[in-house]
Amino acid sequence: MLRVALAMVPEVRQLLTEDPAQLSDLLDEIHDEDLADLIGLLDDAEAAKVLMALRAEEAAPIFERLDGETQEALVEQMGVESIAPIVSEMAADDRTDLIEALPDQVSGTLLSTLEKVDPEAAAEVEELAKWPEDSAGGLMTTDYVSVGIHLTVADVIERIRAVGEDAETIYYVYIVSDRGHLIGVVSLRDLLLASPSEKLADVMTENVFAVSPETDQEEVARTMAKYDFNALPVLSADRKLLGVITVDDVMDVLTEEQSEDMQRLGAVGPIEDSYFKTSFWTFIQKRAPWLAVLFVGEFMTGEVLRRFEHELEVVATLAYYVPLLISTGGNSGSQSSSLIIRGLAVGDVRVGDWASVLVRELGQAVVLGLILSVIGMLRVWLWGDGTGFVLTIGATLMAIVLMGCTVGAMLPLLLRRLGLDPATSSTPFIASLVDVLGILLYFTIARLFLADLLAQAGAGG
Amino acid sequence: MLRVALAMVPEVRQLLTEDPAQLSDLLDEIHDEDLADLIGLLDDAEAAKVLMALRAEEAAPIFERLDGETQEALVEQMGVESIAPIVSEMAADDRTDLIEALPDQVSGTLLSTLEKVDPEAAAEVEELAKWPEDSAGGLMTTDYVSVGIHLTVADVIERIRAVGEDAETIYYVYIVSDRGHLIGVVSLRDLLLASPSEKLADVMTENVFAVSPETDQEEVARTMAKYDFNALPVLSADRKLLGVITVDDVMDVLTEEQSEDMQRLGAVGPIEDSYFKTSFWTFIQKRAPWLAVLFVGEFMTGEVLRRFEHELEVVATLAYYVPLLISTGGNSGSQSSSLIIRGLAVGDVRVGDWASVLVRELGQAVVLGLILSVIGMLRVWLWGDGTGFVLTIGATLMAIVLMGCTVGAMLPLLLRRLGLDPATSSTPFIASLVDVLGILLYFTIARLFLADLLAQAGAGG
Question: Mean pLDDT over residues B166-174, rounded?
Answer without folding.
Answer: 88
